[in-house]
Amino acid sequence: MTDRPRVPEAVRRVYLMGICGVAMASLAGLLRQQGIEVTGSDENVYPPMSDFVAAMGIDIKRGWDAANIEPAPDLVVIGNVIRRENPEAQAVLTRGLPYVSLPEALGHFCLAGKTSLVIAGTHGKTTTSALTAWLLEAAGLSPGFMIGGLARNFGAGFRLGAGRHFVVEGDEYDTAFFDKGPKFLHYRPKLTVITSVEFDHADIYADLAAVKRSFARLIDIIPEDGLLLPYQGCPNLAELVPEARCRVEPYDTEVGAYWQAADASFGPQGTSFELLRAGLSAGRFASPLHGAHNLKNAVAALALGLHAGAGVEGLRRGLATFAGVARRQEVKGEVGGVTLLEDFAHHPSAVRETLAALRAAYAGRRLIVAFEPRTNSSRRSVFQADYATAFASADVCLIPPAPGLEKIPEADRFSSEQLVADLAARGQEAHFCRDVAAIVDFVAAQARPGDVVITMSNGGFDNIQPRLAAALAARKPKSEALPQRASA
Predict the structure, then answer these.
(1) What's the CA gap between 221 and 232, in Å, rounded?
(2) For residues 129 and 322, is the Cβ–Cβ distance under 8 A?
(3) DSSP code of 451?
(4) Where do runs of H (alpha helix) occur along 375-429?
(5) What is the pLDDT of residues 128-156, one digit of tens each?
(6) CA-based nearest residue to 452, from 337, 351, 354
(7) SS3 137
(8) Residue 308, CA distances (Å) to 273, 323, 349 in order
């Protein structure tokens, strides 16, 4: 829409529609840090996000009602979960109130006058964004950032920052009902990492070609004096890179990349490696992160840090002390000798890489994986065959039904039962579990000291982690090893 009212020069009061979303709550925090009064509404108002927003002193309206937008704010930010027919959206349009999308608001209030470091890609962008922000912080550059996860070093997913750099996780999902382009087009990229380009978000992208077109648009808006750091090992991305008008410096763990991790050593405590820049050593670094994918993420973040002007010692210190991102290979605790981990992985490639990393990190220990196919893509059959090989590093797979299948056309629905059958055909132990209670019962009956139980979902997974911990804690000690199989 080109006839929207302009954003006022002076904005004192902002209303956020969909304020309890992770990104919207982060934007609320960024606005509050600038002294702007924030109010908002949401349909799903419950902890932890409702508590997080309330702790900032923000009044939350429950449910959608045109009366909520009274008195009229200076600006309304409309989240991408809001549809045009929403009564509040209709009130905004009818009354001619100024409104923007979340990405537009971030660009207007946080990126103006800053050097924007955008980390995009199908996989790894949250961890790489959080790592980049922490590297710059450790180097004394005080960056601002907005990340789609809780950066544990900061205890938050956002900060305004006092420095001249702002780190943004560049999401390719659509922007708003009035702007169906990807979010990252609003982030004013200057230094840009693209970690990978694969088919995802089957609810908004028709095919891989459509995804590639979006990333091509991102590459096209990087200014000539900007920088593109593409992952060299992604064929889909390699097709797009020649169109860049800016400097291009590929990164990888393989020979031939401009930025390369060489002489890597993997161990229980993480990874150490030599960082090469155009074949010359930029120093040796140690990372607490596990897996080849996180080694690549570290190379990209270090390259960004050096281009941003960070010193090597600060970067080395930052990488060594990086605490990770909540729900990314996060150890939740150990109960009765059983280690509980939580991870966000849901795309088949992410599941594969994450489990391979955990297999190496917990060598000789049994990996029990509970996977919830919850995303708009994983609930569809588009990845049915790919998931059959994604769990190769797991010893036991527990698969519940995909939630919300009634919203998917029957012919396009993912089948958890079929995945279990496919895994069993490959010789893996796999069980279809009717619900989370069945998963908890299975783990309580089977898990042995030394086992590692990993839950994988982009949602709450019906509060599975505390339920697992409670069930394991309630077990009576047994003198003999627990049986390896049980009906779920």
Answers:
(1) 20
(2) no
(3) -
(4) 384-390, 416-425
(5) 999 999 999 999 999 999 998 888 899 88
(6) 337
(7) helix
(8) 21, 21, 30
Does residue 229 contact residue 250 with C-beta atoms inside 8 Å? yes
Residue 146 CA to residue 167 CA, distance in Å, equals 6
Count H helices and E strands in the chain, helices first: 14, 24
Domains of the chain: 13-104 (3.40.50.720), 113-320 (3.40.1190.10), 330-473 (3.90.190.20)
- The pLDDT assigned to 34 comes to 94
In degrees and rounded to multiples of 5, residue 333 shows phi and psi of 150, 180
When computed from its CA atoms, the radius of gyration of the chain, rounded to whole angstroms, is: 23
Distance CA 190, CA 153 (A): 25
pLDDT tens series, the chain, 488 aa: 457 888 888 999 999 999 988 889 999 999 999 999 999 999 877 667 778 888 888 889 999 999 999 999 999 999 998 999 999 999 999 999 999 999 999 999 999 999 999 999 998 899 999 999 999 999 999 999 999 888 889 988 999 999 999 999 999 989 999 999 999 999 999 999 999 998 888 788 889 999 999 999 999 999 999 999 999 999 999 999 999 999 999 999 988 899 999 999 888 788 999 999 999 999 999 999 888 888 999 999 999 999 999 999 999 999 999 988 877 888 899 999 999 999 988 888 889 889 988 998 888 899 999 999 988 888 888 889 999 999 999 999 999 998 888 888 888 898 999 999 999 999 999 999 999 999 999 999 999 999 999 999 988 888 899 999 999 999 876 544 444 433 34
Q: Report whether 187 contacts 168 (CB < 8 A).
A: yes
Query: For residues 25 and 20, what is the distance between their CA atoms, to the nearest angstrom?
Result: 6
Q: Measure the CA–CA gap between 346 and 354, rounded to whole angstroms.
A: 10
Phi, psi of 23 (to 5 degrees): -70, -40
Closest CA to 363 of 288, 447, 450: 450
End-to-end CA distance of the chain: 52
Q: Would you state the structure tokens that stand for residue 213, as one six-digit string? A: 């077109």
> What global pTM score does this model have?
0.84
Of the candidates 234, 201, 248, 468, the residue with the CA atom closest to the CA atom of residue 353: 234
Tokens of 139: 């180097």
- Please give the Cα distance from 196 to 120 (Å, whole number): 8
**For residue 447, what are the contacts with CB-CB under 8 A and spacing of at least 6?**
336, 338, 368, 453, 472, 482
For strands 367-371 and 452-456, give the pairing. parallel
Q: Which residue has the tokens 């800016």?
A: 246
Q: What is the dihedral of CA 468, 45, 184, 409, to 10 degrees?
A: 70
Residue found by looking up tokens 């950066």 in the block: 151
